Amino acid sequence: MMCDMTRSRSQAPYSGWITFLAHLFFVLAAWSVFIKYVFPIAFALFTDEAWTTHIFWDLWPIAHVWLGWALLIQPWYTRWLAVSMSVVEIVIILTLFTIFLAEPDWTIWRTNWFVNKVFVLSAFTLILATVVVKPELFRTRSS
Fold first, then answer.
1. Would you list the domain boundaries of the chain?
2. From CA 118, how far away is CA 10, in angstroms rounded?
3. What is the pLDDT of residues 41-84, one digit of tens each?
């Protein structure tokens, strides 16, 4: 018999706030893909540069979609995923901000990167605050 790793929406604790956060991460992932890949590739192609010239490579948009999905579906590891992904992202972003702000480079590419990271930092701060204030909204192995 296969282990059921998800619970239906009717079994998960319903929260409009969790639904909002999940959709925030879907929008954030789409926006990140546009800012990090679509816009830089289009710009490079129009200016006859190599298409990879202005791309800041990473796979965080995939992780953001995973977290959004987990918030909606509530597999048993949702709280663990929310906390660990939030802590890792917050530490990485604050470290990158410290390095960047020591010698800022306000080109359009770095400004796009910075604005994107401000929104990502805000979203993960909201997730972490929600885990602390309302942990019952996140399913765990025992729930």
1. 16-137
2. 34
3. 999 999 999 999 999 889 999 999 999 999 999 999 999 999 99
